[in-house]
Write a structure and sequence with these properties.
Elements lengths: L1 H10 L24 E3 H5 L14 E5 L2 E6 L11 H16 L7 E5 H7 L6 H16 L1 E4 L2 E2 L2 E2 L4 E2 L1 E9 L5 E8 L1 H8 L3 E3 L10 H14 L4 E5 H8 L5 H18 L5 E6 L8 E6 L23 H8 L5 H15 L7 H15 L1 H4 L2
Antiparallel strand pairs: 1-11, 2-3, 3-5, 4-10, 5-8, 6-7, 9-10, 12-14, 13-14
Length: about 375
């Protein structure tokens, strides 16, 4: 019996199951927003990687930037608590892209957030969501890192406040209103955000999520990116020893080698004979547009005109047109073709074909 359990654990996918396969992330109004993360907290170790209450005060310094994070009695906000910020940022960026007014206060249904971030929608899921809101509100930050060309030197929370608008008798919250901090809202208004792969919410380990954020921020449109494990450990905010950190990263890389599960990038460890000099290599899978060498016939397609997205919704009703744009750009890069003369027409054609090809799955 013990051997069977051990075998099952070894065969378990590195990704969490897709808990809401019927309600596709592309479908419905609330999901019409590709996941977005603010670049400041992708760059700096704001969130705890611990699964237990983390009561450490941490200070991170890099070049001229510094940030100090202090926990509340509930502990530091965790990397999984960040899902709430990602959800709020995504909704506000989608509204900005549609020329709708936005404010620091975001109201949404708790069920929508749980579904969009691949969380459980049972009582336990709502209980964890409430704890996440409390940690986000209680974690205090002091920094000289700017967002939107503004330097905020006072202490602030990741969210200023939250309010559970309605709560049923069994404790399941219905609607939530979150007021984002000036720091986060300035980043949104300045569009200092990056699109995240939707499988980010399926990554099991906190270290994997943090690793993805860092690589997504630094590798970006490049074909590859290298970083020493010592610098990476600092950026992750890991409390592990150098030796233990190498073991943890090595396990993630081994899992990716066996399963190709890591979103957007292939990752591997270059052992250079010393724990301090070892290198992590991240190589783009092509799902994030890669840098194109000078003289290549394939170049990045210019930014699309804003009104094309209204037409795209008619071509692909019910689908996330901004996510479709990302996939269209990635597809162009993988074909090796030159950029289209009429990007808007090419994009609309892609949306039309996508909608027809996936209509059967959409209607199930």
């Amino acid at each position: 019996m013990v051997c069977e359990i051990s075998k099952t654990i070894k065969q378990r996918s590195p990704l969490l199951p897709d808990r809401h396969p019927v309600q596709d992330f592309f479908v419905c109004d609330i999901f019409d927003a590709a996941p977005k993360g603010d670049m400041a907290s992708m760059e700096h170790p704001v969130f705890s990687l611990s699964t237990k209450p983390d009561l450490r005060v941490r200070r991170y310094e890099h070049n001229d930037a510094w940030i100090e994070i202090k926990p509340s009695a509930d502990g530091l906000a965790t990397i999984h608590d960040r899902d709430i910020l990602i959800f709020c940022i995504s909704q506000l960026i989608a509204a900005i892209n549609e020329d709708r007014e936005v404010s620091q206060s975001v109201r949404f249904k708790a069920f929508d957030l749980l579904t969009a971030t691949n969380r459980m929608t049972n009582g336990r899921g709502y209980e964890l969501l409430k704890g996440a809101l409390e940690r986000l509100s209680g974690t205090r930050i002091t920094t000289n890192i700017t967002t939107g060309d503004k330097e905020i030197m006072r202490g602030f929370g990741l969210i200023d406040s939250f309010e559970i608008v309605r709560e049923t008798r069994d404790g399941r919250m219905q609607e939530i209103e979150v007021k984002l901090s000036d720091w986060v809202f300035n980043a949104i208004q300045s569009k200092e955000v990056l699109t995240l792969h939707r499988d980010y919410f399926r990554l099991r380990r906190p270290i994997e999520r943090r690793l993805y954020e860092i690589i997504r921020k630094h590798c970006g449109k490049q074909a590859e990116w290298r970083v020493s494990l010592e610098v990476l450990r600092k950026k992750c905010g890991s409390g592990s020893t150098t030796k233990e950190f190498k073991r943890l990263i090595g396990k993630v890389c081994a899992d990716d080698d066996a399963n190709n599960h890591f979103p957007d990038f292939r990752i591997s460890l270059e052992d250079r004979g010393g724990s301090g000099s070892d290198i992590l290599l991240a190589e783009s899978r092509g799902s994030v547009p890669t840098g194109i060498p000078n003289g290549s016939k394939n170049a990045h397609v210019r930014e699309l005109q804003a009104d094309v997205f209204h037409l795209a919704r008619q071509k692909a009703p019910g689908w996330d047109v901004y996510e479709l744009e990302r996939q269209w750009r990635a597809w162009i890069n993988t074909t090796g073709s030159p950029p289209p003369r009429d990007p808007e027409a090419a994009y609309l054609g892609f949306c039309h074909k996508w909608s027809n090809r996936n209509k059967r799955e959409f209607n199930r």
